[in-house]
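To illustrate the input format used throughout this study, we show a single complete record. The first block contains the structure-token representation of the backbone; no residue identities are included at this stage. The design step must infer an amino acid for every position from geometry alone.
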């Protein structure tokens, strides 16, 4: 029997599906509890994105990874709450940095309450995540701290841009590994670690998480250009409008640079648009149209597939079971998003 689970994931085991659904319900309850405050306004702001929903990709990975040990061990659900709270906190901060108006189909916190409230709410969520983390032990605190350092480093590197002589595409992939791969890897690590899985399984799934995390972000990059309705709730072309150099745009610039004097008129026009202010609706629409038919978009899709395939390959040493099949299916689901 095939049961459709979270993130459009097809789980071919009803027992696993039931277990994951129950775990995600517990995570949801934990998120609401962790975002409560004695100050009603703080509760409203902190629960703003929790109640807006989301794929819960990171908690899902915690719960699937925990299947390789005791999935009902006491630290599993709290660690899933920790990674999602951390992720949500970064969204509050990202929206301030990007001056975003919409997140997950609702007004962003900064658009609704201003930058100061959004930043402080993100800080509140980090504090609540740390509070839960403290009960999970010093090793969990160290792992989370290292991942958070990588996440922030990735954000700083994105802001600073590649150093002179550095390939912008390689730089960008390093940024994504830090900003996204680090926390997704920790999700898999926490799930296996908290469930008491063997150390070899912990290492294997941590590697899987890093790779699927990068693939997940690259799929988002493709969707930002290719999709008419972006499943993250963001308006299509949001990154493009904000001048964020995602992978398709970097491939365009690379291909144009390689073409030299033989660059086409359309490519010349596209680069001209990318260098301009794309807050203008007409220029933005023209840039989107040219990007959607450009070979660079297909190259970005191939990169997404490459990372998803690498994640799938990392699973080879694991014993055959329903959880492994679900993790393999997740690689396919990520690629399908970019298809």
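Output of the design step:
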């Amino acid at each position: 029997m095939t049961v459709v689970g979270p993130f459009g994931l097809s789980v071919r085991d009803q027992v696993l599906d039931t277990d994951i659904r129950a775990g995600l319900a517990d995570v949801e309850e934990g998120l609401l509890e962790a975002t409560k405050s004695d100050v009603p306004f703080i509760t409203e702001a902190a629960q703003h994105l929790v109640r807006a929903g989301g794929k819960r990709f990171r908690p899902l990975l915690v719960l699937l990874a925990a299947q390789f040990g005791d999935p009902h061990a006491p630290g599993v659900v709290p660690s899933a709450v920790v990674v999602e709270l951390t992720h949500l906190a970064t969204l509050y901060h990202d929206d301030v940095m990007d001056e975003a108006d919409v997140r997950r189909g609702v007004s962003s916190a900064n658009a609704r309450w201003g930058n100061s409230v959004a930043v402080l709410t993100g800080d509140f969520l980090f504090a609540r995540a740390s509070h839960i983390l403290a009960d999970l032990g010093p090793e969990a605190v160290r792992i989370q701290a290292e991942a958070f350092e990588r996440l922030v480093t990735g954000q700083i590197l994105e802001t600073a841009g590649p150093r002179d002589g550095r390939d912008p595409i390689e730089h960008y992939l390093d940024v994504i590994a830090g900003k996204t791969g680090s926390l997704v890897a920790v999700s898999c690590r926490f799930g296996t670690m908290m469930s008491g899985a063997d150390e070899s399984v912990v290492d294997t799934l941590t590697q899987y998480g890093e790779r699927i995390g990068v693939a997940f972000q690259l799929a988002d990059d493709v969707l930002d250009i290719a999709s008419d309705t972006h499943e993250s709730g963001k308006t299509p072309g949001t990154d493009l409008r904000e001048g964020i150099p995602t992978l398709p745009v970097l491939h365009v610039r690379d291909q144009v640079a390689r073409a030299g004097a033989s660059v086409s008129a359309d490519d010349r026009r596209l680069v001209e648009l990318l260098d301009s202010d794309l807050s203008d609706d007409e220029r933005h629409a023209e840039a989107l149209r040219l990007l959607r038919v450009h070979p660079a978009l297909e190259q970005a899709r191939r990169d997404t597939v490459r990372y998803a395939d690498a994640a799938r390959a990392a699973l080879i040493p694991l014993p055959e079971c329903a959880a492994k099949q679900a993790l393999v299916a997740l690689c396919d689901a990520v690629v399908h998003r970019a298809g």
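Structural context for interpreting the output: The longest helix spans residues 168-195. Residues 1-5 have pLDDT under 50 and may be disordered.
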